[in-house]
Amino acid sequence: MELSQRIRNITPGGSDGWEVFYRARAMVAAGEPVIELTIGEHDIGTDPAILDAMCAAARAGHTGYAAVPGTPELRDAVAERLTARTGVKTARENVLITTGGQAALFAAHIAVADPGEAALFIDPYYTTYPGTIRGAGARAVPVAAHAEDGFQPRPEEIAAAARRHGARSLLINTPNNPTGVVYSRQTLEGIAEVARAHDMWLISDEVYDTQVWEGAHISPRALPDMAARTLVVGSMSKSHAMTGSRIGWLVGPAEAIAHLANLSTHTTYGVPGYIQDAAVFALRQGEAFEEKIAAPFRRRRDLAARLVAGQSTVRMVPAAGAMYVMLDIRATGISGRDFAERLLDEERIAVMPGESFGAAAAGHLRVALTRPDEELADALARLLALAERLAG
User: Where is the Aminotransferase class I/classII large domain (predicted)?
Assistant: First the structure.
């Protein structure tokens, strides 16, 4: 029996971009020591106080079906957080609780694009973006951001793609994974102008909004006339080191959220209540807690910058946020994919090749700042030494 074209077309050609990661994990499983700098997984676990709150909620009986759009308490807590952080008045009716940010991305595209319609996204991109769009039945159309622009997207190129494809939506991500770039106000105002002019939905992935080292995070939902056409993806994964709890949200116009709640009824049927209760507890710990979770990545960004500054082969893309640095290794004369494979083979260090994140990131590496400082410094020093050997 043949499967649907939609399911077979999620990753055409069979590659999902994670080959180096899979190979590194296989080596670790076989007992080989590998320094893994691939995925955005904190080197600490979820805070014990959050786990205690989760356990207490479960033992108190919140283990049955929970409200599908999210518990009123958690929806209110997310609404309060968005109101405080963005200045946009947000209510419970604007919030849908999802099984992590990834589920929110999928639901958002189901909501805004019919099968076959074009959905734009910025390249470089998080590896799941095009597959998520295809899985929702839309046509995934990349719009390149350029290294020479510091990977700030050009609104005029987004506008050209919107005209050419009759696009229904645009997906952006700031602070950005994989580049670490924080989009400027000028960039975001240009994007908002394009969205209004071409009557597009804007899907804004803001899961790294607590990890900003330079400048400020601006949610496009806060820009003039954008709240009615913007869906914001958020998550507890990065801000509270709760990656495995799979707790996120989608924020947008009340009518859209009501339809998305109906989608949840027919797909996930909600998030476990005891996990939602733990998320409420975590959010109530306030900004100081979130800053504590983010602090190691700011420190390690600075560590990486100092090491890169001490040589002349590799250049670091200015990282103003998120838990990664993007390294330009084009001076070595080999691709990011080939470099990552050699680094894994020769040094037992695993990083993500830029090509996993789109054509615009070719010749780069994404390094996750997710190991203790000394281990990270050792890995970066060896990576830089390999680059210098290759450059000759």
Answer: 33-383
